[in-house]
Write a sequence for this structure.
């Protein structure tokens, strides 16, 4: 089974969406998806209500997810670690023990040729429109990832 971890700062906006979106696109008997944050601000809490609403509007339920902080031991558990931006990348790679750990970490938009930027913007300080844009960006990226992983 391939295990994939989605990581953002607080694990309440972007990574829960990415977690739910990719999970909806891959067979659960072959892939396990989870999410975490680099910060410890929201441990044990639900994703942001706007992320839950945005996912629900797109037919995905992320309301059972709980926020957790990325741990060095995640390198032992996950095969691929997708981060949302360069800051997340730096924070995760700082905990890496060796080149093998580092090789697991990728920007989620790395393989999306049409992306204007390699960073998924944080919608936390924005409104519903910002969450919808992030959803669309992650949905497109997860389509590409799902195709790549299932070929």
């Amino acid at each position: 089974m391939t295990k994939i971890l989605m990581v953002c700062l607080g694990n309440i906006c972007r990574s829960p969406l990415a977690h739910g979106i990719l999970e909806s696109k891959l067979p659960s008997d072959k892939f396990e998806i989870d999410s975490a944050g680099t910060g410890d601000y929201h441990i044990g809490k639900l994703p942001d209500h706007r992320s839950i609403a945005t996912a629900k509007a797109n037919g995905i339920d992320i309301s059972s997810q709980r926020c957790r902080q990325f741990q060095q031991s995640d390198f032992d558990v996950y095969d691929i670690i997708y981060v949302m931006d360069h800051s997340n990348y730096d924070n995760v790679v700082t905990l890496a023990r060796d080149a093998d750990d580092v090789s697991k970490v990728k920007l989620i938009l790395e393989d999306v040729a049409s992306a204007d930027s390699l960073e998924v913007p944080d919608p936390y300080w924005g409104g519903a429109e910002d969450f919808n844009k992030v959803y669309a960006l992650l949905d497109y990226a997860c389509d590409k990832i799902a195709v790549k992983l299932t070929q």
Observations:
- Helices lie at 14-25, 49-57, 74-77, 86-94, 99-103, 128-150.
- The two ends are 15 Å apart (CA to CA).
